[in-house]
Amino acid sequence: MRYLSLLLLLAISLSACNLQSPNKSEIDKQGLLGKAIQERDRDLANGLIEKGGSVNLADSLGITPLHWAARRAMKQVAYTLIQNGAEVNTVDSFGFTAFDYARKTNSKELVRILLENGASAFCNEENDIFDGPFVDLRPEGRYAYYLKNNPTKKSVFLEGKYLADTCSTFTSWLGKQEVYPLIKPEIPAWKTNTKEPIVVLGDVHGEFDRLINTLREQNVIDTENKWSFGKGHLVFVGDIFDRGDKVTEILWFIYRLEHEAKKAGGNLHFVFGNHELMILNNDNRYINDRYKSLCKPLGLEYASLFHSNSVLGEWLRTRNSIVQINDYLFVHGGISEDLLDNDHTADKVNHTTRQYLTGGINADNMEDCKEIFSSTGPFWYRGYFMERSKYDKISKEGVDRILEKLNVKTIVVGHTEVDQISEFFSGKIIDVNIPMRDGDLPLQALLIQDGEIVITGN
Question: How do residues 297-347 score in pLDDT, each as one tens digit?
């Protein structure tokens, strides 16, 4: 390190004395730039770059300065190298690019810099697939991007651009042209009353086409997938994520439809499910292979696409976990006696879950989180339909006690699959989770109108 610094000082001194300073070829031959980065001397490396050191000069093993910057997790030097013409996807004698080394350092910021400047990774996927758009909310602006693979080159990469600060919408540039709104999300009211009809859907799990067909049959949307339900209410009882391969499309669709519903005087309620909770907790065991094919080569966690400073991630974290409309309660798994015995009201569950998804577990919410996210919590409970190792199936008296304490007449849930929308306990519990991935089952929805329950499509 001392030797390299002295050489740079000598070069600067020669220049200051009007003597001939080392030119680019001399700096290249000395290989100082690569050595400076190798020894983590950021100031020296930046000085050599400024003086015209070759940013693409490789050593005998094909290792370039950018390779070394990635190996040493020197993100700012890597950025400077790229801005000065460094080739991002140069392969060294070991077959590695700078991106390959960056992944090994676990430097997320360095990985992002390389991806946004054209880095690609090897991919076994033979089909032309992409996912997105995703929009990050960054200090330098809103960055929209897709994950995309090139089956010809066997590579997967990120394609993105910054959006204008003043824009309230943006148009997709991959696949079908869509216009996406950019709306600052607000925490919705969890309790409301209405005289308008209510349509309820169960777990969608990435089945975009089946969802669209169901909503069209219910006249909730028109043939252009726009809101046509007037002042009506549409309720999703959770589990948009996992299993299917069009999760992103559904999320943007619901995000936009919610905005359209409010403009028409109606409302859309997206109740959090256990799979939303799993994804935001980085539990990816059920994600579709499509997302694995795109994320894994790039070293990206699927959950990172929905982080709290992204448009969809911020919106998701404002959703409710329990919603009440009139005297109907909507929750993904169910409300157990244990939950109420521990004084977890709907308002408290919504607040605690939102707080957890934003800031994680702390000393103040630890006990509440432990109970709310347990097997008897609202995301996982199946006690209306079966017994489990940690609880018995609920009795009729238990259901009546829950309804009385909540002051509602019916609880509508998803989570537990049924072949057709079904009423239990004399209509006090309704399960709407029809597995949409099963094409042999008819499209079904629950309609609540004028205080009456109508099961359509069965």
Answer: 998 999 999 999 999 999 999 999 999 999 999 999 999 999 999 999 999
Q: How far apart are CA 425 and CA 447, in angstroms?
A: 19
- What is residue 285's DSSP assignment? T
The answer to whether 82 touches 113, Cβ cutoff 8 Å, is yes
User: Cβ contacts of residue 206 below 8 Å, gap of 6+?
Assistant: 240, 241, 242, 243, 244, 245, 246, 247, 250, 288
Kindly give, in sequence order, each residue whose CB lies less than 8 Å from that of residue 211, ignoring residues fewer than 6 positions away. 201, 204, 250, 253, 436
State pTM to two decimals: 0.89
CATH number of 191-456: 3.60.21.10
Do the beta carbons of residue 27 and residue 54 sit within 8 Å? yes
Torsion of CA 88, 93, 95, 99, to 10 degrees: -30
CATH tag, 2-117: 1.25.40.20
As given in the structure block, the two tokens for residue 184 are 């600052």
Beta strands (DSSP E) in 298-405 are 322-325, 328-331
Report DSSP letters for 96-149, one per residue: --HHHHHHHHT-HHHHHHHHTTT-EEE----S--EEEEEEEEETTEEEEEEEEE
The C-alpha atoms of residue 331 and residue 272 are separated, in whole angstroms, by: 8
Give SS3 for 452.
Answer: strand
Q: DSSP 3-state assignment of 281?
A: coil
| Chain region(s) in the chain for CATH 3.60.21.10 | 191-456
Q: Is 40 left (phi over 0), alpha (psi -120 to 50) or beta?
A: left
Q: For the chain, how many residues are written? A: 458
Q: What is the DSSP string of 431-449?
A: E----TT-TTSPP-EEEEE
What is the rounded distance in angstroms from the CA atom of residue 85 to the CA atom of residue 63?
A: 16
Cβ proximity of 35 and 53 under 8 Å: no
Per-residue HEC secondary structure of 231-279 comes to CCEEEECCCCCCCCCCHHHHHHHHHHHHHHHHHCCCEEEEECCHHHHHH
Strands 233-236 and 130-138: unpaired
Q: How far is CA 416 from CA 272, 330, 383, 385, in A?
A: 15, 14, 10, 8
Closest to 98 (Cα-Cα) out of 86, 80, 83: 86
Distance of alpha carbon 372 from alpha carbon 81, whole angstroms: 49
pLDDT tens for residues 381-421? Answer: 999 999 999 999 999 999 999 999 999 999 999 999 999 99
List every span in the chain annotated with CATH 1.25.40.20: 2-117
